[in-house]
Amino acid sequence: MKNELIKSERMPIGLYRVNGLSMSPGLAPGDYVVTLKRWKSRYRIGDIVVAQHPHFGRIIKRIRAIQPDGMLWLEGTHPDSTSTEKMGSISNAIILGRIINTTRNNNQINARKTSD
Question: How far is CA 17 from CA 2, 11, 104, in A?
Answer without folding.
Answer: 38, 17, 10
